[in-house]
Amino acid sequence: MNNFLDKINSPDDLKKLRLEDLPLLAEEIRDQLLKTISKTGGHLGSNMGIVELTIALHYVFDSPTDKFVFDVGHQSYVHKLLTGRRDRFDTLRQYQGLCGFTRREESKHDHWNCGHGGTSISAAIAFATARDLKKADNKVIAIIGDGSMTAGMAFEGLNHTGHLKSDMIVILNDNEMSIAENIGGMAAHLSKIMTGQVMTKIKEEIDELLLAIPGIGKEISKYAHKIDEAITGIFIPGRIFEDLGFRYVGPIEGHDSKVLIEVLESVKDLKGPTLIHVITKKGKGYKAAEDDAGAWHGASPFDIAKGEFHKKTAHPSYTNVFAQALIDLAKVDEKIIGITAAMPDGTGISKFGKVFPERTFDVGMAEQHGVAFAGALSIEGFRPVAAIYSTFLQRAYDQVVHDICLMNLSVVFAMDRAGLVGEDGATHQGLYDIAYLRTLPNIIVMAPKDENEMRHMLKTCVEHDGPTALRYPRGAGLGVPLDEEMKCLEIGKGEVVKDGSDIAFFAYGHMVKPAEDAAGLLEEMGLSVAVINPRFVKPMDVGLVTRYAHSAKCLITVEEHSVRGGFGSALLETLHENELSGVKVKCIGVGDEVVEHGNSAIIRKNLKLDKEGIAETALEFYQKLFGTIPAATQKKSDISGRGNGSGEEFQPNGKKSRQNSEVDGPAVNKPTEGQTVV
Ligand SMILES: Cc1ncc(C[n+]2csc(CCOP(=O)(O)OP(=O)(O)O)c2C)c(N)n1
Questions:
Q1: pLDDT band at 209 (very low <50, low <70, confident <90, very high)
Q2: Per-residue CA distances from 508 to 315, 461, 534, 540, 570 (Å)
Q3: Is 85 within 8 Å of 134 (Cβ atoms)?
Q4: Within a 13 Å sphere around the CA of 430, how many CA atoms are in the beta-carbon half?
Q5: What is the pLDDT at residue 176?
Q6: Ligand 1: which of 179, 186, 279, 284 to mutate, most ligand atoms within 8 Å of CB?
Q7: Does residue 178's CB lie within 6 angstroms of at least one atom of ligand 1?
Q8: Ligand 1 within 6 A of CB of 145
């Protein structure tokens, strides 16, 4: 090995290499990608496929003066390796390490924070516009995959760019794959372009033969061209982009740095928008990933030699339990339809699709369209289940409001990855869905305490007339036994997991378990702690809230969600609406901050959302209200052994909170309502 990569600390070092060195550099980069991602996990296939293209971009352009905007940003690992982040590459996706997407805070070579798809062209045309307004002359290049090109926002960006006619380059990195197989007209159009290349070659050969006919050959050739143009407009490569106002260049072989460099050199100073269509192979250079691009898109740690992911011993994931439950429900209800937006495997809809292919729809990376599509299907009597991660449903917020809730349509939103998502980080955290959904009319919003309850909730959702939303976390369930029969839950009714009189935890969804564990720690100290599983945030179980507002000395809400607008806020509103004044309430959740990437256990510990953190915050709150626990009852004095690390607390005067908020006031003035203890 020549160790070219070891000497590259900036794009200037790359430019010192000879063209003939670049294939070896590409090999070294692929080795490094495998070495690191096999340990950290990450977007393997996309990065293996973009090696030569990234080398060529940095060889030809001058980053950071010239600006690269990677769409989604999941394919920017090679860019990170070439822009001074090689030494920290082993920290990829780790806590306080390099992010798995582009981050402005991380490097001057990253100009746009992303993680969601379809944003690159909008950002790039804005950078080009700003450049023109400032009379600067740097280049701007958006790099977008064929999967992300199916996002409506990408078309909006193309349309505006064509209109502005600014000097800008869009590189379409076409590997014929989104995470799964790419879908739709754009995919078909791109493959026609490639077929068109073959046809063009054939036509050139025919032309040569015609021209060789003495005397009349030239005339016949001209006539043949006219007919060809009239009939086969589809063979004009990139017609769709040309019509949008772009100069189309391609398709170009994407694994030959020399060719790519020649093409980039030849277009870099052209005026107006140019789209370069580059053909790459996802997973290039690693057989397992080339053979199964879907599985290796987002790889968990793996054995390089064997090409196998390390085995996980955890319980079945929420995703798998959801998929099986949906299949079971759809066997008896033929109106159930599964919808995914380019995440068939991540959401489990691919499993549903194997059993009910005709009732499964992957709409592409097009959440907005997917939600409206679900709405109109429900008008026709179907029961669409839109399985969209909490974070990606944000993209379709207006559709949830306008196309579903206002019409009171029976669509189920199954939101996987609700709560903290670990290594994917800030852009993927599912921390806002309670807030953005519970404010809407008609919708029922719920979260299960475990995977068994999730199945009952799913049945509750599909049988309810009107919109419903169900949130559940990333990863493994608790391993609880699954009831044989799924049953509908009473809407708006929670359960008392355990009774208690000093503190009542109202823990939403998957936070019931850590709250139960925290209650255990507090009880060891002599406190009496209730744990409530409210199940629904909308409608809230007013009876349960009222009961504990009277019977417990204080209420503590626990959620893996933004405290602002979340379950705790809803409980405070419930107290207010029911004139339950003077109740002491503390809201535990995520404060007004961006939660970065890293191992979920570390992040939860830092946010004090693990059992020790919850118990510690609860104890502090209790002691602040009522003084120290009497020594007579106290069994143990320190919960975690990690000292006092609580976050700032919410003050009515608007003082900032890091991760929890509290409200208190005069005594309770309403009678108690009864509730069964389960
Ligand atoms: C709005 C949104 N929806 C879904 C996703 C999840 N997602 C991440 S990458 C990806 C596929 C991207 O495909 P493509 O752009 O072709 O890039 P490739 O990985 O194939 O290089 C998807 C669906 C996302 N990041 N953003």
A1: low
A2: 21, 18, 6, 11, 11
A3: no
A4: 28
A5: 81
A6: 179
A7: yes
A8: yes
